[in-house]
Amino acid sequence: MEKKSIWLCLVVILIVLFVGGVVFKLYFIDGTEQALEKNYCNDNQREGACIQVYSPACGWFNQSIKCIKYPCAQTYGNGCQACLDKNVEYWTQGECTK
């Protein structure tokens, strides 16, 4: 192969890797973080009663709970039910990952 062809192949490979990395970051990493909007619990939510509507929420535990493995959370029927647990700091929409 000619030197020019080798350099052209290397440039094409680098471009493909760069574009793939950008797509991966935008689609898989940033998309996941945006979908997991944190809804922090407040004192009013901890004292109330919740309606029984099933809309799964992942309740993330506060620093008082020491977890052995990820996630340091539990799935609840909805965000209100998650906030009734005094150990939950905030919740995200959907079931917790396993």
Tally the beta strands: 4
- The tally of structural domains comes to 2
Content-based structural category: alpha+beta
**Beta-strand percentage?**
15-25%
Rg of Cα set? 22 Å
Mean pLDDT: 84
Strand order of the largest sheet: 1-4-2-3
Characterize the largest beta sheet: strand count, sense, and whether it forms a barrel: 4 strands, antiparallel
Helix content: 40-55%
Unreliable spans: 29-34
Shape: elongated
Please describe the structure with a list of short key phrases separated by commas or semicolons.
98 residues, alpha+beta, 2 domains, four-stranded antiparallel sheet, 45% helix
Description of the molecule:
The protein is an alpha+beta fold. The protein folds into 2 domains: 1-35; 38-98, no CATH class. The chain has helices at residues 3-35, 43-47, 79-84; strands spanning 39-40, 57-61, 73-76, 88-93. A 4-stranded antiparallel sheet has the order 1-4-2-3.
